[in-house]
Design goal:
It is a single chain. It contains 3 helices and 4 strands. With 103 residues, it is α+β, with helices and mostly antiparallel strands. A 4-stranded mixed β-sheet has the order 1-2-4-3.
Length: 103
């Protein structure tokens, strides 16, 4: 079994997305509800490695989902509901690479 290297994702190498959860354009609570549903109701077999896409920050664009989504994913990792999480490099601030693990 190959290991999941979150540092490799930061430069775009070594992470093959199996599925994408697109939260772009969503309000905070709706986006977090959709993310919670993914993390808490995952099924095996099913996609394990996800790209969670959010709007990157833009000058004058207001608050983004980066902090609330990142905070939720880190809490899920600490609770062992998520195996690994790291920010995606392209575009910067545009989402997270998440390995749900299984087992």
């Amino acid at each position: 079994m190959t290991g999941f290297d979150p540092l490799a994702m930061l430069d775009g190498a070594g992470f093959e997305t199996e599925a994408t959860l697109d939260l772009r354009g969503m309000e905070r609570e709706a986006a977090l509800a959709k993310l919670r549903a993914l993390v808490e109701t995952r099924v095996e077999p099913g996609p394990r490695r996800w790209s969670v896409r959010i709007e990157p920050a833009r000058p004058g664009g207001g608050e983004t989902l980066f902090q609330p989504v990142g905070r939720y994913l880190l809490e899920a990792k600490r609770a062992r509901r998520v195996f690994s999480v790291a920010p995606l490099a392209d575009p910067p601030g545009g989402g997270f690479a998440v390995d749900l693990g299984f087992g």
